[in-house]
Design brief:
By secondary structure, the protein is of the alpha+beta class. The chain is 29% helix and 24% strand. The relative contact order is 0.13.
Length: 544
């Protein structure tokens, strides 16, 4: 059995990687342990804007927006003494129905054609699986386990076991990508080690059905309902907006044994309900928050993406969304290599770009988690007190809680601000990229940064106009580009030239020429082609 790319793992990262490779004409096979249609665990609850941009490219963004919570269900993050108790503060976020029309609030300013969307993985993953299954270039083998892989200078021979019959098959591929989770067999195959902070936080997590809970929540409900009190703090996430909920019970530092903590009592304390309240446990989803990054993402023809490459504290969907960013970075590099217009050395950019960013963002996530832990341990005793004393305590504490947490739920910097400053395939010009934090960034055309988004006068997104390979944005029609176009044609480098009218040019585009990669990052810029065009072509091909 042969394919061009073999992927181990059909979670969101593996499926996204497969779909992007397939639209580039690459043959892909996926092996997945689970049965076809077997529901995923209730893990990620948030699809970031950059990920929604990816789904837009794949033609599935609107289908995803139709999934998950009802379109009019509030997406607010509400901090209360308990879910049914007194409100401490609220981070107001637009519902799915309000996303295109709401411009007032901390989560509405983002320069993107696809704002974030709240949808649990149990709804997201079936959409991705259906889209991948329908793609002509993708074959999915469910109930199959990758048990070994050996590589040579021409490809990878993977041994795959059918879990239903016990038979083994060899799949020959040119490259293997492990998207197979935190215990990644593929990472182990390449000798990768996870390095970092093994335990940041523990959470006893329970997926429940409680049809009467929504009616007990005072005022406007939220997507995230965070309970802060001196007894037991936790987070109750609306899954279907009706009756299913995911409850995280954040354990104290001394609570190291999940089974030693009374689950029922903790749930009732977090919800603020008595023993008479009825609910059904669907599943237990206990987790340990970590900050672990693999010491390598590649060994020759074998790569790792997503949780196989990094394990983070699960705040704001950082893990899944970062994994999909890994996939979109790797996809076009693999496709360029297989198409023959890029040197195999271009694949070195995957580790050079994603490694440093992963390390940086992992610290962002961990530091935020530590801040949230401190807040949970510093809840003022009077937060549940009656009268003025309680109102004052909630107001004072609420401000600190809001200021910390609005950063993770409105993480513009994390989405759009990261840049690649150590890449072998980016033609730098000496200007330093703007600094960014979780929540802030400055749009920039400095090579390595994300191409600033803008709308054409006809309401078309610039990202919809980019080509499958490189795109040269020309803001001055008199700028001479034929030498670059001719050399790209001679070397079969896909190059789309996009002339931008003066009325569509934003002030951030100071140079007349911007070379954009298919993953939206700037590869080069200038007012005219460089004197050493050979160097630029070499960077584009990964052969410099």
């Amino acid at each position: 059995m042969q394919t061009q790319i073999l992927i181990s793992g059909a979670g969101p990262v593996g499926l996204t990687l497969a779909m992007d490779l397939a639209r580039r004409g690459i043959q892909v096979a996926i092996v997945e342990l689970r049965k076809k249609g077997e529901p995923p665990s209730v893990k990620c609850n948030h699809v970031a804007a950059r990920t929604m941009e990816t789904f837009r490219l794949l033609g599935i963004a609107e289908g995803i927006r139709d999934g998950g919570l009802p379109r009019d269900y509030p997406n607010d993050c509400v901090y209360r003494t308990t879910v049914t108790g007194e409100e401490i503060t609220r981070i107001s976020l637009p519902s799915a129905a309000e996303r295109r029309t709401s411009f007032d609030g901390p989560d509405t300013w983002w320069p993107t054609p696809e704002p974030a969307h709240r949808i649990n993985q149990i709804y997201l993953e079936p959409i991705l699986f259906a889209a991948a299954s329908a793609a002509a270039n993708i074959t999915i083998y469910n109930e199959c386990e990758l048990i070994d892989a050996k590589q040579d200078e021409n490809g990878v021979s993977a041994t795959v076991r059918d879990l239903t019959g016990g038979t083994t098959t060899t799949i020959r591929a040119q490259y293997l990508v492990g998207c197979d989770g935190g215990r990644s067999p593929v990472r182990n195959l390449i000798g990768g080690k996870l390095v970092g902070d093994a335990i940041v936080q523990r959470a006893q997590s329970t997926y429940i059905r409680a049809p009467k809970l929504l009616s007990l929540i005072p005022g406007r409900p939220g997507w995230m309902n965070l309970s802060l009190n001196p007894r037991r703090s936790g987070n109750t996430i609306a899954i279907d907006g009706k009756e299913t909920w995911l409850i995280h019970n954040y354990l104290y530092e001394h609570e190291t044994d999940f089974d030693a903590i009374d689950r029922d009592t903790s749930i009732r304390t977090i919800l603020g309900v008595g023993n008479g309240f009825e609910y059904e446990v669907i599943s237990n989803e206990d987790w340990i928050g970590r900050r672990l990054v693999a010491d390598k993402f590649r060994d020759r023809r074998i790569f790792v993406c997503g949780d196989s490459a990094h394990l983070w504290v699960p705040y704001a969907g950082y893990g899944m969304n970062a994994g999909i960013a890994d996939a979109m970075n790797l996809s076009w590099l693999l496709a360029a290599t297989l198409a023959g217009w890029a040197s195999p050395a271009i694949l070195d950019a995957y580790w050079a770009e994603r490694g440093p960013i992963t390390e940086q963002v992992s610290h962002f996530a961990m530091n935020h988690a530590l801040g949230a832990i401190r807040h949970r341990r510093e809840v003022p005793p009077a937060v549940e007190a009656p009268g003025d004393e309680g109102r004052q305590a909630r107001a004072e504490f609420g401000k600190a809680v809001y200021d910390l947490n609005v950063r993770q739920y409105c993480a513009g910097g994390l989405n759009f601000g990261y840049f690649y400053d150590r890449s072998p395939i980016i033609h730098y010009d000496g200007e330093t990229a703007p600094a960014y934090t979780i929540d802030t960034f400055t749009s920039s055309t400095v090579p390595g940064c994300r191409l600033p988004h803008f709308w054409f006068a006809n309401a078309r997104s610039i990202y919809d106009a980019l080509g499958m390979g490189y795109t040269l944005l020309r803001f001055n029609s008199s700028a001479e580009i034929s030498p670059l176009a001719q050399e790209c044609a001679r070397k079969s480098i896909p190059l789309k030239v996009l002339d931008i009218r003066p009325c569509d040019r934003l002030a951030v585009f100071k140079e007349d020429l911007i070379l954009a990669r298919p993953d939206f990052h700037v590869a080069w810029r200038g007012n005219s082609l460089p004197d050493n065009l050979t160097s630029l072509i070499g960077k584009m091909r990964g052969s410099a």
